[in-house]
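ok new one. same drill as before - structure tokens go in, u give me an amino acid for every spot. 288 of them this time. try not to just spam alanines like last time pls lmao
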């Protein structure tokens, strides 16, 4: 008897099908409606972040956030990513959700080689926040971030300044301790890809762009500095990479200035998250 053997090609894995063992054990993705984690590298990164949170005892803080809808999940991911980066760069988390000013709380308090703790707040301004009222009414916020090669002029100094001055941001910073605002943006053009706009937002010595730079006077003296952070997979890379750079505030109070040790990040730093590289066998499996 002749038997004809056929091989059915598996469809590519996608979305929550890519979740790794830690994510499957610790969180439920039932409320997610997008393709996250989208790639095997980001699935591995999620496992790394969850194990990091578990080791530091902060899973009860992050699990509800990670199980929330897409936007809140993404904010929680950025908070964990920044904590992971700082922790493994010599600035360990010493307290989660520390009290700030006006009854508000921050993301975490980090230690430093200078024996000075730094109050850290993480914000993630998105592309939706810069849309015109007309585009909002037309339902643009419900569409993908990039569509039909949509382009045009942009001014990233505006969302950055709004982020700093927001009632949800600056009022948290007490005048008694070093304070750092980390911005992990989701703008159409990343702040790391538009450094001139960051310079305008912070250091412009004129009002040609609407306002003077926020670090050109004592107006934001409670803020020691601002950092820009990005997690990405770069072309030709082998895992998820983090980028981080700091802009210090020369008008910060002596008590709120950032310690010298963290100012090494005034030069852009980049590093790959250990454990996120995908082997050729894994790559073939997820694409089958």
């Amino acid at each position: 008897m002749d038997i004809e053997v056929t091989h059915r090609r598996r469809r590519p894995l996608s979305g929550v099908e890519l979740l790794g063992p830690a994510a499957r054990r610790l969180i439920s993705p039932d409320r997610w409606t997008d393709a996250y984690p989208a790639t095997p590298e980001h699935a591995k990164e999620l496992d790394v972040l969850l194990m990091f949170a578990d080791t530091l005892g902060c899973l009860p803080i992050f699990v509800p956030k990670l199980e929330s809808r897409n936007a809140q999940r993404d904010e929680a991911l950025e908070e964990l990513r920044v904590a992971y980066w700082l922790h493994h760069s010599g600035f360990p988390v010493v307290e989660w959700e520390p009290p700030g000013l006006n009854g508000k709380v921050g993301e975490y308090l980090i230690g430093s080689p200078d024996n000075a703790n730094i109050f850290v707040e993480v914000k993630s301004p998105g592309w939706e926040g810069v849309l015109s009222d007309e585009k909002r009414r037309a339902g643009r916020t419900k569409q993908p971030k990039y569509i039909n090669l949509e382009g045009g002029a942009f001014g990233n100094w505006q969302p950055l300044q709004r982020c700093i001055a927001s009632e949800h941001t600056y009022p948290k910073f007490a005048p008694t301790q070093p304070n750092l605002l980390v911005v992990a943006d989701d703008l159409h053009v990343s702040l790391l890809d538009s450094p001139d706009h960051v310079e305008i937002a912070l250091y412009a010595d004129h009002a040609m762009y609407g306002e003077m730079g926020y670090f050109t006077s004592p107006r934001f003296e409670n803020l020691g500095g601002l950092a820009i952070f990005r997690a990405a997979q770069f072309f030709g890379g082998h895992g998820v990479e983090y980028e981080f750079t700091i802009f210090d505030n020369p008008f910060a109070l002596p008590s709120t200035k950032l310690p010298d040790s963290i100012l090494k990040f005034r030069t852009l730093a980049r590093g790959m998250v250990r454990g996120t590289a995908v082997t050729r066998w894994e790559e073939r499996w997820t694409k089958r």
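The helical segments are 21-26, 40-55, 59-66, 70-87, 133-137, 157-165, 195-203, 280-287. and btw Residues 15-146+153-287 form a domain with the Trna Endonuclease; Chain: A, domain 1 fold (CATH 3.40.1350.120).
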